[in-house]
Amino acid sequence: MNVRLLLLLFCFCLLTSRLQATVHTVGAGSNPTAIKTALALAQPKDTILVKSGFYQEGNLIVDKPLTLIGENNPVLDGNKQYEILSVKADSVTIKGFVVQNSGSASLDDPGGIKVYDSNHVVITNNTLYDNFFGIYIQYGKHCLVKNNTLISNGTTDELQIGNGIHCWKSDSILIIGNNVSGHRDGIYFEFVTNSVIWRNISFGNVRYGLHFMFSNNDAYITNVFRNNGAGVAVMYTKNVKMYNNVFEKNWGDAAYGLLLKDISDSHIENNRFIQNTSGIYMEGSNRISIKNNIFGSNGWGMKIQASCMDNAIDANNFTQNTFDVSTNGSLVLNTFAGNYWDKYEGYDLNKDKTGDVPYHPLSLFSVIVEKNPPAMLLYRSFMVTLLDKSEKILPSLTPDNFVDNQPLMRPLPL
Amino acid sequence: MNRITQFVLTDIFRNKIMIAYTALLAVFSWSAFTLENNSQKGLLTLLNIILLTVPLVSVLFSTIYIYNSSEFIELLVSQPIKRGKIWFSIFTGLSISLALAFLLGAGVPLLLYASIGMFGLVAGMGVLVSVAFTAIAFFSAIFTRDKAKGIGISVLLWLYFALLFDGLVLFLLFQFADYPIENAMVFITALSPIDLARILILLQLDISAMMGYTGAIFKQFFGTALGFSISVLLLCLWTAIPFALSLYRFQHKDL
């Protein structure tokens, strides 16, 4: 009986001691003064509070479940040589640091904050300057990256700089409210499943604002992708949901608002594609629903290659694009219905708000340019205008099933 | 400014057609900028006017003017004035008035709605195109005494530059689609003043990004200060050569 009670007491003591996490304060005037020492001293579940200051301690490895909190933005500097924070344990929280100047190497991809094989890691409210990779998660699960700002110098050579937020072979990741600029790809996903990218702003990156490959069942919602070298690329993926995003000002010879390559069973809804060379460029993509989007002031609203099938383009607004739609073949396996086209010149006698004459969004000149790109040389020449007008009256060269049978008379209130 | 040019100018300024032309340009340009909600689109509309209306009016008006003043020219020739001076003075008078009409009609809204650099470029191109087509009018008017024939030639030349030339370019593009002809295309566009002006303006607008590889090559050539100067020089040559040819003919012609 006594033995049992003792055992219970012992267990209770053990439990309370485990529950009582200590707070280690690091900084000038505190003990210890180095983060490294604190990391070595700390027990699992402890908190390390780092006071404001400049810490140049090489590579910091977090291999216990700890909470690291920066007070008044302490600076962790990698001296352009080291990876700064390496997380190698579950349930680590990193909050409120300025992480800058990581080393750069193309062999082991050092990052400002890199997560190795760990779950439930939380990275919030940090600022990252001039790192090779910003936040790098590999084999992570249930991690949260929230409200961080990542800025890099953005050299034009894409080999000199890594990605902002880079996730690889991970699952259930949340990327929320981050601000990424000047990296190679703003946000990069490869083999990442069941994840959400929400309310981020990715601009001025060297290559893509968002680069997305082999990442099934993900959603990206309410993000802004602006002025990136080549826009946004989504490739080799199924079940992607893209809602409420803004793709704008991705101008350049090979820049796309959204590049879809081998995407299937996905939803693209309520997005805005403004001032891109091509709003959406799609290739080998099937069964995508493109609905309630705005395509405005783009060079090409959509470029749909003939390798795409069973896509439904419904209820979108196409305004002020040079070409609303173009394609590279005569095979049309996609459907258009109920879109608003500002170039539509039909009428509506029965007042049901859809035009009585079908609209052919493909202009002859866009077909010519697709077949022979240098013909763009004749853009805006009188002869081209004349050719387009005659083709509209008597379609002969453009595929006649490339048609919207219910074009709207007024733009949708999107 | 010499007396003959002054005569020509005062004569043209009283001309109702010229006033109508200025008014037409003004109406077109103002509506282009006020109807389109961004000035870039307005510029593109204005570009169409420069490429179509301005050459047509310049070439037709000048041709008819030369034929109508044939008696005035004969009278001048009987005076002790060099023939070259007479011909050049009439040309200067016509060019100045057409350029002024363009600047008053299209230049003012352009100055108000577009950036100052764009104004300089588009107004400069408009003036150069006006002058080049005046020279082409002199060229077509000198070869025949028959007014109908002369006007016919000038309209045909306009049709060629505004429409047929682009058709030919498109034909060439498709015939030689398998060959790297981009560099040759840079040379070929120099063969039409209208195309030259169009491409110079388009490259300054954002649309150059859409022109793909060809656009990049064009930008590489026309985008540099040297390329730009060369193409402006070429446009000037489009004035100088037809005028020089007509001048030579005028000096040796039995009126």
How are the SSEs ordered, and which strands pair?
The complex is a heterodimer of chains A (about 425) and B (about 260).
Chain A: H1 2-19, E1 23-26, H2 35-41, E2 47-50, E3 54-55, E4 60-62, E5 67-70, E6 75-77, E7 85-87, E8 93-95, E9 98-100, E10 111-116, E11 122-124, E12 127-129, E13 133-138, E14 144-146, E15 149-151, E16 165-171, E17 174-176, E18 179-181, E19 187-193, E20 196-198, E21 201-203, E22 210-213, E23 218-221, E24 224-226, E25 231-238, E26 240-243, E27 246-248, E28 256-269, E29 272-274, E30 278-283, E31 286-291, E32 294-296, E33 300-304, E34 312-314, E35 317-319, E36 323-326, E37 335-337, E38 340-341, H3 364-371, H4 382-393
Chain B: H1 3-13, H2 16-35, H3 39-68, H4 70-77, H5 83-113, H6 116-142, H7 147-175, H8 182-189, H9 193-204, H10 212-222, H11 225-251
Helix pairs in contact in B: 1-5, 2-3, 2-5, 3-5, 3-6, 3-7, 3-9, 5-6, 6-7, 6-9, 6-11, 9-11
How would you describe this protein?
The complex is a heterodimer of chains A (414) and B (255). By secondary structure, chain A is mainly β. Chain A starts with a helix and ends in a 21-residue tail after the last helix. Chain A has one domain: Single-stranded right-handed beta-helix, Pectin lyase-like (Pectate Lyase C-like), CATH 2.160.20.10. In chain A, the strands form two sheets. Chain A has a 25-stranded parallel β-sheet that branches. Chain A has a 13-stranded parallel β-sheet with strand order 3-6-9-12-15-18-21-24-27-29-32-35-38, with no helix packed on it. Chain A has four helices and 38 strands. Chain B is mainly alpha-helical and 255 residues long. Chain B is built from eleven helices and no strands. Chain B is globular. The two termini of chain B are 26 Å apart. Chain B has helices at residues 3-13, 16-35, 39-68, 70-77, 83-113, 116-142, 147-175, 182-189, 193-204, 212-222, 225-251.
